[in-house]
Design a protein that fits this description.
By secondary structure, the protein is an alpha+beta fold. The protein has two domains: 218 residues, Hypothetical protein, domain 2 (Endonuclease III, domain 1, Orthogonal Bundle); 143 residues, Nucleoside Triphosphate Pyrophosphohydrolase (Alpha-Beta Complex), CATH 3.90.79. Strands 1, 3, 4, 5 and 6 form a five-stranded mixed beta sheet that branches. It has a two-stranded antiparallel sheet with strand order 2-7. The longest helix has 16 residues.
Length: 395
C-alpha cells in the first residue's frame, strides 16, 4: 500500500528540525523509571500501562509490578488472578490479561525475549502498531515511528490539519508524516522526544508554544489556531444507570463474590464482584432482593442495611452504586463463587467499583462500632494492596 503523507517541514530543514527536538529532549526529558533501562520487558510493561493512563498514576504501579514480576518468565509463570490483582486500579483489565498471554507466548516461541522484529512483535496478544514500534525502537533501535495521541497532536498542529485526526485517511497521513520525520539514527530517543513534546509542551489545552523547540515550523501557531486543534471528537452521549449490590457478611467477617463474563460483568471489569443487578425502577433494594431470590435462592429477612452510595464511570456509563449489607448466619456458595474475608479483598482481583462497595461496607461497620466483633482491627487498611501473600479464600 502506498504511504499517504504530506509535507510538514521543508526537506532542507529536516536536519535542523530533528536536531532541535533531540536536543530539547536531552535537556528537558522527565526522569521516568522505564527510561533508565533498555530492557524490552520493562519498556513493554510501561507502554501497556501508559495506554489511557497518566504518567504520574503509572509510576507506582510500574515499580510494584516489575518488582513482583521482574522479568517475562516470572510474568508468564504467574497465575492470572495474581497478575490482575497487581493491575487493580489501572483499569482496562484486558491489558493485563493480554500482557500475561503475550508473556507466555514470548517464553514459548521467543526463548523469553521480546522479539526484535516489528512484525513478530505485532503477532503478540495486545500488541498493536504503536506498542510494537515503541518497544522495538526504544529497546533495539528499530527505525519505526510511533504515533499515539501525543505525537498526533504535535503533527496536527505543525501541519494545521483540521478534521478528526482519528479518521482513517487522516491517521494514515499522520503515520506517513511521522515516518518522514523520524530520526533514523536515533529512533528510540526520537520517538520518546515526540511523545514528551506532546505530553509536556504541546498539551491538549493551553499549549506552551513559547517553550516549544520547533515553534518556528508550526503552522497552527502562525495561524493562531493552536488551541483549536486537533478538532474535537464526537463523544457518545453518557448513559446514567443504577447498580444495586449485595454485600453478604457472615459471623466470621466473610463475604461472597461472583464473577460474570457477560456484558453486565464488564461493568466490574469481569473480575470478582459482589452480587449485583441493574435497577431500572425506583426501588433498587426490591430489584436486588428479587435477583438474590431467583439466582442465589437467598431470602433476605431483615438484617439489611443500605450503605453509602458511590459514583463510578465505565466508558460512557455514569453508574450510581447502591450497596446493601446483608448479615447472614451462613453464606450462599453457588458454583464458581468465591468466599473471602471482607478485610482481605485487596488480595483478590477486584475492580474499582467493587472496591468502592467494600469501602462503604467497612465504613458502616466501623461507624456502627461492630468492627471489633466481625472484622479485625487491620480492617482500617482493608483495601491496601501492599500485602500480596496468599489469602485464605475458598472457591
Amino acid at each position: 500500500m502506498r504511504r499517504v503523507s504530506f509535507a510538514f517541514i521543508p526537506r532542507g530543514e529536516l536536519r535542523t528540525f530533528r536536531r532541535r527536538v533531540l536536543s530539547w529532549f536531552a535537556k528537558r526529558k522527565r526522569d521516568l523509571p522505564w527510561r533508565r533501562t533498555k530492557d524490552p520487558y520493562c519498556i513493554w510493561v510501561s507502554e501497556i500501562m501508559l495506554q489511557q493512563t497518566r504518567v504520574a498514576a503509572v509510576i507506582p504501579y510500574y515499580k510494584r509490578f516489575t518488582r513482583i514480576f521482574p522479568d517475562v518468565r516470572a510474568l508468564a509463570h504467574a497465575r492470572i488472578d495474581r497478575v490482575v490483582a497487581n493491575w487493580a486500579g489501572l483499569g482496562y483489565y484486558s491489558r493485563a490479561r493480554n500482557l500475561h498471554r503475550a508473556a507466555k507466548e514470548i517464553v514459548a516461541r521467543h526463548d523469553g525475549h521480546f522479539p526484535r522484529e516489528y512484525d513478530e512483535a505485532l503477532r503478540l496478544p495486545g500488541i498493536g502498531r504503536y506498542t510494537a514500534a515503541a518497544v522495538t525502537s526504544i529497546a533495539y533501535g528499530e527505525p519505526r515511528a510511533v504515533l499515539d495521541g501525543n505525537v498526533a497532536r504535535v503533527l496536527v498542529r505543525i501541519g494545521a490539519q483540521r478534521g478528526d485526526p482519528r479518521a482513517p485517511t487522516a491517521w494514515r497521513k499522520l503515520e506517513g508524516a511521522a515516518e518522514d520525520l523520524l530520526a533514523r539514527n536515533s529512533p528510540g530517543d526520537w520517538n520518546q522526544a515526540m511523545m514528551e513534546l506532546g505530553a509536556t509542551v504541546c498539551t491538549p489545552k493551553s499549549p506552551r508554544c513559547g517553550e516549544c523547540p520547533v515553534a518556528r515550523w508550526c503552522r497552527a501557531r502562525k495561524l493562531g489556531i493552536a488551541e483549536e486543534l486537533p478538532s474535537a471528537r464526537k463523544k457518545r452521549a453518557p448513559v446514567a444507570m443504577t447498580l444495586a449490590a449485595a454485600v453478604f457478611l457472615d459471623p466470621r467477617g466473610r463475604t461472597l463474590l461472583v464473577r460474570k463474563t457477560a456484558s453486565d460483568g464488564a461493568l466490574f471489569s469481569r473480575m470478582w464482584q459482589f452480587p449485583a443487578i441493574e435497577a431500572t425502577g425506583a426501588d433498587p433494594k426490591a430489584a436486588l432482593t428479587t435477583h438474590l431470590r431467583e439466582y442465589f435462592r437467598v431470602t433476605t429477612n431483615g438484617h439489611t442495611t443500605a450503605l453509602a452510595t458511590a459514583r463510578h464511570t465505565v466508558t460512557f456509563r455514569n453508574i450510581r452504586l447502591e450497596p446493601f449489607l446483608f448479615h447472614v448466619a451462613r453464606l450462599p456458595h453457588p458454583a464458581g463463587s468465591l468466599i473471602a474475608p471482607l478485610n482481605r479483598l485487596g488480595r483478590v482481583p477486584v475492580s474499582n467499583a467493587t472496591r468502592k462497595i467494600a469501602e462503604a461496607a467497612i465504613a458502616h461497620l466501623l461507624a456502627a462500632k461492630v468492627a471489633r466483633a466481625v472484622i479485625p482491627s487491620e480492617a482500617r487498611n482493608l483495601l491496601s494492596f501492599s500485602d500480596r501473600k496468599n489469602s485464605p479464600v475458598t472457591q
